[in-house]
DNA sequence: AATTCCTTTGAAAAGCTTTTCGTGCACATT
DNA sequence: AATGTGCACGAAAAGCTTTTCAAAGGAATT
């Protein structure tokens, strides 16, 4: 059995209150008793029980993190940022991986609520009405990460996806490409899908390449999907010389496809990714991409959540962090294929 | 403020005990009261406070997971296994990322102890004496994952690293390679370092290739290290035609180096990795590797920890799960380099 | 009709800590 | 010497739930 404050009190020959004071306001206890108590604490390996403490303080110094797919390397960076910020602000974090399954999501929400976490970080997914109702009911502070909601008044931290996609495509155009394709998440995805497609469209329109607007193939969240999407895309539009993908994993699937078909990157085909995951520097060729400040997003989200919990004022409700174009070797000037 | 059991009791016009009974032993309450209570629970959105519960039951249904590097994709698979098993057994998990920093490790240990987690899963790192003392003092059940300790009596789940390395090298030998190199973790790493090097040695000795035994370059945990290690290795031993690396990340660094130097894989150089991370199927060329059953290791570790917590009997203390040789396209028959 | 037994319920304790309140004592002040 | 001030410390309440114990009431048995 673990020792309790009572055990310490008995051993040190003082009351429970005195032991508590030694830990929380040491100066209010005379020296010789204080030392006795500290000795007893050491001897018994006493550590205060966080549950009892949480019950009194009505807070647990714990944050819940909801993630759709922990195997996606994108989140590793976000989590690191969250972790470092949590550590700095005195929280620990509890990670819940939903696998994009609504049942799991709600089961985890209930769990976090029962555990009385001080706040929740919700990443990437769209905020559905029934989910919003749930968090409203729980009254737990919540910050959206890499997603936002225009419908509800929820604080969020993300990049400007539309602008980022625009920049990626504009860069391809600046290299001279005139037939550009896209491998995109489904447009029903209001975060990583539609806005990036809109950015793609805007860049094309701006440079009078409207013809390309329909050169899109859709994929789910895996390399394999992107591989086959690339296949479909090139079969339908064989003139394409550059592809904008909405994730680095997609880009890797595309690189894989090109390699197998003997299409050289970047000589015959430029490929640009999105996210700048750690692997992106080690693909062959190294991947040009749009960097999301994942670490900072995670870090900032925790700071924002902390402000919310403490009731401190915070900057804008919906916060947008800057993205960055990273040019490596998977993109190059336009040149006729074959 | 969140509603408490008392609020429910008042609203339903019964005592606290009755409300508790409705939740934990519904049949012991007469129907009309039960229904009133259920109504009140719904109306007030009442959810029992896990802290108070934990205080009584002396358990929190939470497991702590200690991970050295969450950005390493290897752990994503392990975590998924842990997650699924936890869900099945009624636990939630709390992930702590130590970044291989001892201070962080101890700070997290203390935190998990205060939070009164029911058990701890400790991955990958060697069990140092002062760490062992700490967990002994806490008396929290613990299972080692992807690591073990021969010195201490700690339950563990991992593969047989020596045998796995042996199999990888033997496979290279079977392809006809006679000058084989290795990119290894430091030999001070008692888990992923030394045993795999011993497997490398054993295979070479068995096939009378002792000369290769010293063809090793060491790297830390990142692609970059492996890139430079490959450079050093080939400068020193230019005859090498096959390289065994102790992680897929290393292998990717090596592939990157070969690509840059114009050395074709697998025609001029075979490369075999270790772990079979998700990315391994999408490198160029696709990576041959030793698959660790990461998901199963995570899953099994939680089952084992659960048995320990519940005091149920469990199979052997140190458990070894089977690895598997995965042949893709980064390995091929020996052929002279240029 | 009296006793026993069972069902249903509420009061209270326990689990561990923090904090408020009040007491007792030492010292200072007049 | 008597009153006042302040410090150190212990008792007890509070935080929320579960569970034990006891009581009350009704049904069943003799």
Automatic annotation (TrEMBL), chains A, B:
Residues 3-57 form the HTH lacI-type domain. PROSITE patterns: HTH_LACI_1, HTH_LACI_2. Keywords: DNA-binding, Transcription, Transcription regulation. The keyword Transcription regulation applies. It comes from the Bacteria. Coiled coil: none annotated. SUPFAM superfamilies: lambda repressor-like DNA-binding domains, Periplasmic binding protein-like I. Gene3D superfamilies: 3.40.50.2300, lambda repressor-like DNA-binding domains. This is Catabolite control protein A. It comes from Gordoniibacillus kamchatkensis. The lineage of its organism: Bacteria, Bacillati, Bacillota, Bacilli, Bacillales.
